[in-house]
Design a protein that fits this description.
The structure holds two protein chains of two kinds.
Chain A lengths: L1 H5 L1 H6 L2 E7 L3 H15 L8 E3 L4 H5 L3 E2 L4 E2 L1 E6 L5 E7 L7 H16 L27 H4 L8
Parallel strand pairs in A: 1-2
Antiparallel strand pairs in A: 3-4, 5-6
Chain B lengths: L2 E2 L10 E2 L35 E7 L2 E6 L7 E6 L8
Antiparallel strand pairs in B: 1-4, 2-3, 3-4
């Protein structure tokens, strides 16, 4: 969570609120923030650290591991209408790539701002080519978009 | 927006909006059947994120959070396995 907290100002600049959740109690969240996370990120965790004892919320989101009694690493991007635009779920040993979360938010915001008139090809990030789907583009994507554009 | 709460001895809980609230003597009460094993479905992209309420620790305070408080804003919701784990 410290990696997300470290990029919190970037999320804020994009108008994004961050929420974290685990099955730990709010009391343990407080201790973890005070004793460890605040040593990794100045000021500690800036967003609400939510508690989901019993995994009820995690179950509804499909990321609660009943056998282990913990939540897996699920990350959901929710738009201003309350719709889920994307999610990613990892097993516990591997951490998230916050860059990718930020990129996806930027992409979904771009599409929303274009009122759906633009589509973003693989590997898109701000500044890269966008596509405007329509009859003229059918079968012609190869003319304007090359696979190496998907690379960084 | 989120209101502060004073914690008692019971561990504060929340849950999906619309489901039965957990009672203090929760040990004997049964969960909503639809949320028990065998009937899990993954979230569908483009569809509503299930609303929920949850107690939270936020900058020195304990608050109650509802996902619906955040309508009108983008939200990144991050679940993780546990406090004091390594990743």
């Amino acid at each position: 969570m410290s990696a997300v907290a470290d990029r919190y100002s970037e999320f804020q600049d994009l108008g994004v609120e961050v929420l974290s959740m685990s099955v730990d109690s709010v009391f343990v969240h407080k201790m973890w923030d005070e004793h460890e996370l605040s040593k990794m990120v100045k000021g500690g965790i800036p967003f609400p650290m939510m508690s989901d004892g019993g995994g009820k919320v995690g179950t509804v989101y499909g990321i609660y591991d009943e056998d282990a009694g913990v939540e897996t690493r699920g990350r959901f991007i929710i738009d201003p209408d309350g719709n889920v635009q994307g999610y990613e779920v990892l097993t516990p040993p591997v951490g998230r790539n916050v860059n990718e979360s930020i990129r996806q938010v930027q992409a979904f915001q771009h599409v929303r701002n274009s009122k759906g008139s633009e589509a973003l090809p693989s590997g898109w990030k701000p500044g890269k080519l966008t596509l405007k789907p329509g009859p003229d583009l059918v079968g012609k994507v190869w003319e304007v978009w090359k696979t190496d554009m998907a690379r960084d | 927006m989120a209101e502060e709460f004073k914690p008692g001895c019971a561990r504060p809980t929340g849950g999906p909006v619309g489901s039965e609230p957990v009672k203090e003597d929760a040990a004997t009460s049964s969960q909503d059947e639809s949320m028990k094993g065998g009937n899990k479905s993954m979230i569908m992209v483009g569809k509503k994120a299930p609303d929920f309420t949850a107690p939270a620790y936020h900058r020195g305070k304990f608050i109650n959070v509802a996902l619906s408080d955040y309508l009108g804003k983008w939200v990144v919701l991050c679940f993780y396995p546990g406090d004091f784990t390594f990743v």
